[in-house]
Amino acid sequence: MAGSQPKKNTFFGGAAILAGGIIIVKIIGALYKIPLGWILTDAAFADFNIAYYIYSLLIVISTGGLPVALSKMVSEACTTGRGNQVQKVFRISLAAFCTLGTITCAVMFLFPHQLADLMNNSRSYWSILALAPALFFICPLSAMRGYFQGHSLMGPTAVSQIIEAMCKLVFGLSLAWLLVSRGVDESIAAGGAIVGVSIGCALAAAYMFFVYRRYRAKAPAYDDTPDGSGEIFRTLVALAVPITLGSSVMAVANLIDASLVMGRLQDAVGLLEDDAATLKGVYDKAITLYNLPTQFMVPLTASVIPAVSAAIAVRNHKQAALVSETALRTTALLAIPAGVGLSVLGQPIIRLLFPSTDVVLGGQILSVLGFAAIAVCLMLVCNSIMQAYKMATLTMVTTIIGCVLKVLMNYFLVAVPEINIRGAGFSTLACFGTVALLDLIIIRLVLPKSLSYLRVFVKPVLNSAVMGLAVWAVYGLTSRVLAGVGPFGDGNALSNLGNAACVVIAMGVGVVVYFALVLLTRAISKDDLSLMPKGDKIARLLRLR
Prior knowledge:
Layout: H1 11-39, H2 42-63, H3 66-79, H4 83-110, H5 112-118, H6 125-150, H7 155-181, H8 186-217, H9 229-267, H10 273-295, H11 298-313, H12 317-344, H13 346-353, H14 359-388, H15 392-413, H16 422-446, H17 453-482, H18 496-520, H19 526-530, H20 535-541
Helix pairs in contact: 1-7, 1-10, 1-11, 2-4, 2-6, 2-8, 2-9, 2-10, 3-4, 3-6, 3-9, 3-11, 4-6, 4-9, 5-6, 6-8, 7-8, 9-10, 9-15, 10-12, 10-14, 11-12, 11-14, 12-14, 12-17, 13-14, 13-18, 14-15, 14-16, 15-16, 17-18
C-alpha cells in the first residue's frame, strides 16, 4: 500500500506516536475519572464500573482478536507488496466487525435489567443502557485501527483515541455534574457520566472513516491477485478465535469476579446492596490508578505484533528476538518503577486524588495493586510476543489458570469479614503474577537463546528498589516536617494540602533518582535506542555504547 513503501517505519517509531497519544489520552482520562470520583459517591462509582465489565466482555467478543488478526495479515501482505490482498482482507474484516457490533449492541440495549441483576447490582441499569451504542461504533473503529496499525501507521489511532477521551471528558463529566446538581438519583448520574463514551466512539469512528477514505484515494494500483474470500475469512478466524478466546477468558473472569465480589459481600459478609456497592466503589477507585501503568503499554502491544510478524515473515528470527527483548526491557523499565511508586505511596495517593473516600482502605488496596500492575504490563507484552509467534492458544491457557485462581481466591477471601474487599486486591495480584510468570517461561523456551532475562529485569528491579526506598524516606521526612507548618498541618497531622505537597516532592525525587540510576547502570542500551526515531543521536548524547 501507499505509505508503507516510501519509508520504513521503525518499531519504536510507531510506538512513539502511540505513546504520545496515550499520554494525552491518560491526562484527559485523569481529568475525567478523578473529578468523576468527586462527583459520584463510592456506590455510584461502582455502578459506573459494573457496566464497564459487561461492556468489556462484549467488546472482546466482537473485537478482541479481529484487530490483532487484521493487523498481522495486513502487515504480512504489506511486507510482500500485496496491496490488493490488503484491501480484500480489510473489506472482509470490516463486514465481520459490523455484524458483531450490531449483535452485541442489541444485547446491552435490550437486556439491561437482566444484565444488572446478573452482576448483583440492580443500580447499574442506567449505565449499561448508556453504553450500548458504544458497541455499535467501536467495531468499525477497531477495524480501521487494525488496518492502519498493520501499515505501522499509528497516528490515526492516536488521534481517534484523543477524540474518544475528549468526548468522554466534555460530555460525560458535564452530564454527570448536571444530573447530580439537580438531585437526580446517583445511579442515573452514573449513566450520564458514561454517555460520553458512546458519543466519543461515534465521533472517533467518523474520523477514522474520513482518514481511511483519504488514504485509499492516494494509493497506487497493484497487480497482485488476492486470495479467495473464503480463504481470507478462514485465516482471519483461525488467527482471531484463539486471541478472542484468550481475551474472553480474562473478560469473563472479570465479569464473574465483579458479580462474585458484590454477591459475597452481601451474602457472606451480610452487607446491604448499597453498602457492598460502596466498598466496591473504593476498590474501583484504586483500580482506576492501578490501570494507569497498564494503559501505557498499549503503544508497545500495538507495535510488537506487526514488527515481530514482519521479521518472521522474512525469516529474520534474530531481529524478531531483538524486538521482543527490547519490548520486554522497555516494559520493565517503565512498569516496575510505576508499580513500586503506587505501592509505596498507596495511601497518600488515594488521599490526594480521592479524599472523600475511605483513604485507609483504598491505600491498602492500592499498595497491593501496585505490584499487580507490574505483572499486568508484563503479561500484555508477553501476550503480544506470543501472538506474533502464533502461540495465541498458549496465552489462553495461561490466562485461564490465572483467572481460575483469581475467582477461587475472591470466593474465599472476600467472605472473610476482616478482609472483605481487600481480598479482591490480593486475588488480582495472584492472578496476573501467575499469568506473567507462565508467559515468561514459555517465551524463554521458544525464542532464540539470544534473549536474556538478566538483561531484561535485573537493572530495572534494582533501580526501582532504590527509587522506592528514596520515595518512602522522602515522603516520611517531608510529612513530619510539614505536619507542623501552617496550612500544611495542624501540628500533629498533615492537611490535604500538606499531603499533596509531600506526594509531589517524593514523586519528583523518585523520578530524578530513577533516571539517574538508569543512566549510571546503562539499563537502556544503544541497540534499544537504535529502534527509535533519532535513537542513534540520543545514544550519542547519553554516551551509550
